[in-house]
Amino acid sequence: MKAKQLLRDQLGLSQEVMAKYLCVTRSQLAMYEAGKRELPTAAIVKLAEITLFLEQNKASRKEDDKLLKKQELEVKTLLKYHAKELEYKQIKEQRMLEAIKKKHNQSLQLNSLALHLQKNKSAQADILLQQATIGIEKNGVAAQTKQVLKLESIKSQLNHINILKEK
């Protein structure tokens, strides 16, 4: 990176914004940064003032460090809170998965019973078979997979939060 561009980059300014501040055109600034042209004296003075300020301001970076530490503490608190929320959500979704599996198994057993009763020509077998079919469809492999995906998403978020906590 060119030394003349370093100051602008250090401040995170585009050529356009820096040119406006220096009261020159963007192309003048670009040519100056490329070493093909000098800037007017007033613009050079402004650049010198910025450079001097940044050099003198290094001492005040201790204040920046305090602010940064405070922000880091806030982030850690936020991550801890979010992790607790996700852990609660994970427990809730795990219980939901277990309930879906239980209902699915119940529906499978009911289906077996209904098929057995149908063979024996029981009139109520159709009612039970219909109920079993509804339960199997509602709590089947697709519903279980959807619930597993929710759990995996929560686990992934928790892992990411734990990684962030370590930083």
Overview of the structural elements:
The protein is 84% helix and 0% strand. The chain has seven helices and no strands. The model has no long low-confidence stretch (mean pLDDT 90). The chain is mainly α and 167 residues long.
Fold blueprint:
Layout: H1 3-11, H2 15-22, H3 26-33, H4 41-56, H5 61-119, H6 125-138, H7 141-166
Helix pairs in contact: 2-3, 5-6, 5-7
Q: How many strand elements?
A: 0
Radius of gyration, in angstroms, nearest whole number: 34 Å
Distance between the termini: 29 Å
Show unreliable segments: none
Would you tell me the overall average pLDDT?
90
Global geometry: elongated
What key phrases describe this protein's structure?
167 residues; mainly alpha; 434 Repressor (Amino-terminal Domain); 84% helix
Summarize the structure.
With 167 residues, this protein is mostly helical.
